[in-house]
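Researcher: First entry.
Model:
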Amino acid sequence: MTYCVGLLLKEGIVLLSDTRTNAGLDNISTYRKMFFFEDPGERVIGILTAGSLSVTQTTLARLRELCDDPNADETTSILKAPTMLKVADMVGSMLSRVRADVTDKTQMGQWASATMIVAGQRKGGEMRMFLIYPEGNYIEATPDTPFLQIGEHKYGKPILDRVVTTETSLKDAQKAVLLSMDSTLRSNLSVGMPLDLAVIKRDQCRVAERRRIEAGDESFRAMSEAWSNALRDGFSQIEL
């Protein structure tokens, strides 16, 4: 399983993913689930993945191959697409085709499934964020719901519902997604470290910050302990 979350704010975009992939209790591996397609200053596209590793890796490999094609144009390469909406269309179509191919070849049925979060901005355009479903259709983050989640999302959703708005600063947004991940890590062993965190600032069209958080990271541990203490203190102060 996995957990990935993206926030779309007035100041920019914050993305966070874990790296755990498991095929049974005794087959646990670490794979990156956050990827970027970038032409710094012109366009940046971040993709978070959850689900079948064969589906997500093949989808990303084919998207990358099309971007690297010297004959690529706006109909084939997400780095040349005219809008982020068109990027979402292209990623969705590729995901749907790969899912069908893998299902047909392996007879995996419903297990050959994956979802993606696609977020970014092109020069002169607006920042946008989409959740791409296995069938290729998608929904978009809005001012009313400025975050999207994929994977094991239920444990980390309450804090996002309570504290995140489009006005949230990038600093507070990073804290929110990390605490959302901390809640998930505590409640589901199929989600695990290390974590990948990235920030895209409005109109820069590049990845502004990128960080790998390992299992022994002291700042993350301190944040986790502070949050646990705050919850316990708040709980004890509430009258029944």
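Researcher: Second entry.
Model:
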Amino acid sequence: MKIVVVGSANTDLVVRTEVAPDAGETVVGKDFLIAPGGKGANQAVAAARLGGEVTFVAKLGDDDFGRNNLGLYREEGIDTSLISFDRDAPSGVALIIVEEGGENRIVVVPGANGRLTPRDIERSRRAFEGAAVLLVQLEIPLETVEAALRMAKAEGLLTVLNPAPATPLDREVLELVDILTPNEIELFGLLGGPHAKSVEEEARRLLELGPKHVVVTLGEKGAMIVSPGRDALHIPAFEVEPVDTTAAGDAFNGALAVALAEGKPIEDAVKFACAAGALATTVLGAQPSLPRRDEVEALLASRA
């Protein structure tokens, strides 16, 4: 089944070091890597590597980074016919510092991502026709996210919103979302205070505004599925040796979209996504770390 991913496309400039510098401090890094990234692109590549038939709707700068990334997406088997170039803005970039143990600090410069508009979504209508799932994030303008969600609902798609980076969302947007996938930090940034005391309570606050499910990613603790009228369900993480956590959430979301498009129930889809997210932490870089189907299935089988 077809998956439409609407979102950002970046080039990541990654430095690995023992500790990130404090203000005014210089430290010596260990490794440097230039790799394609951006939440939208990462999730599109993740879904394609796991067997999804993916169309990616995005905007690139008319520069070397943009042209190089377009070629890489095509190599992954992604439909790039709805990716456009903007001559007035550079391609997005992300500066990423990865500390020993895998924790990261990221600065994103949106560039052309910030110029993806609702009009671009309207021009992409053909991608939504007959598709199963829309996957979208918040590294593009919120009005464009809303336009994509509205089109998806009109065409009968299941909608998945990964609310990253965290941005306050109102009911009008949340009512368009079938599955919301924040991490813990994002979860508590989506609604104004006062906040609930627990992850489950805060997730249930969000459910009252429209989503059918809230799936909270919990890092090394796995994920929690919170649905109306049911007890929260905890899906344990898979044990791996982390190297870089940069694209773990993107691997999770791409895998979730694939599993849902294949008709898997939410619990099985989240287990599949947890396995993909775990594997993504074992390789340095965003898109280089995204696993393939046989790797995910092997990890799932190890727990069976």
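Model: Note on the second entry: The radius of gyration is 18 Å.
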